[in-house]
Amino acid sequence: MLLNRLSDFVATGLLLTLISCGAVPKTDPETNVSKAEPIAATEPVENPLVLGDLSENDPVGALEEFQPLADYLAVQLADLGIDDGQVKAAPDMETMLQWLTTGEVDIVFDSPYPALRLAQEAGAQPILRRWKKGDAEYYSVIFTLLDSGINSIQDLPGHLIAFDSPSSTSGYMLPIFYLLEANLMPAEKNSLNSIVAEDEVGYVFAYEDRNTLQWVINGKVAAGVVDNQTFAELPEDVKANVRILLETEAVPRHMAVVAADLEPSIVDAVTQVLLEIDQSTEGKAVLEQFERTAKFDPFPTPDYLSRLEEIYARVDDWSE
After folding, report:
1. Are residue 196 and residue 279 in the same domain, yes or no?
2. Which of 138, 240, 299, 313 has the fewest beta carbons closer than 10 A?
3. Do 89 and 65 touch, CB atoms closer than 8 A?
């Protein structure tokens, strides 16, 4: 009965609204995700402000969501010489790193893991927290079925767990960090049929929350990881038959980072405009189109970024 209930939930379009990391892959999740070509919204002009989005699967959708904000910022910054707002969608992290380094992109909005990589490798500067889809923060939930025989993350060695994607904050960075902190040994596997040694925690990438849920349901993996918003939307009778193994600490839902060579006066102006954008009717309309963003605010405490950098560094050191 539970499997049917879970399967029905996974099969409906409702779950598609729960995926919080943008458009989902249209390819088989057990194969490589196809890559889109870099795409820009408009032709180059003399002095544009360019927003960048890491969009592996739906660059056109990214342009539609980001362009109203780009236009709004350009109007607000016209006195500083900005004459246009543009959007560029990168098909992969390497392209975005190149664009930030060469000055082709000025501002990027992303979750902490990719944002911190942009900071570490391209010198990007985090400036604000973004309340994407109304949420200031989110966290990871590692879960299993009640009858799996797994009662804590210490029972995971010898088993397979489903993560989201290699660039995911809630579906990779946070769970990897917590497994490492528990002195466990994560090991990436190529397929659901891979052998997992008794002293390691095997993991595979599902690339979609619905795949993670389905794989847990069908016993293809012993445990899965989703963010707290996705887990909260599970039907109550389903959650009653699921055991939460771990909830991580909360991190920013999204961050705004600016290119290292962006003029300080532009950085200050962009920061101020974003902090005030939710205070006008026009600004609220722009935010609604921008993936239902509620507002931007400063990072809440001085050590907020330091903790994120600590988590990032631990995972980065382990992955090298």
Report:
1. no
2. 240
3. no
In order, the DSSP letters of 184-231 are --EEE-SSTT----TTSEEEEE-SSHHHHHHHHHTTSSSEEEEEHHHH
Q: Are residues 51 and 176 in the same domain?
A: no
CATH of the domain at 101: 3.40.190.10
Q: Which amino acid is at 295?
A: K
Q: Is residue 171 part of a domain?
A: yes
Measured in residues, the chain has a length of: 320
For residue range 113-171, list pLDDT tens digits in order. 999 999 999 999 999 999 999 999 999 999 999 999 999 999 999 999 999 999 999 99
- Could you tell me if 195 and 66 lie in one domain? no
The burial class, CB within 10 Å (0-12 / 13-18 / 19+), for 220 is middle
Q: What is the pLDDT of residues 65-87, one digit of tens each?
A: 999 999 999 999 999 999 999 99
Cβ neighbors of 27 (< 8 A, separation 6 or more) are 33, 34
pTM over 0.90: no
Which whole number is the average pLDDT over 29-48? 53
Q: How many CA atoms lie within 13 A of 194 on its CB side?
A: 22
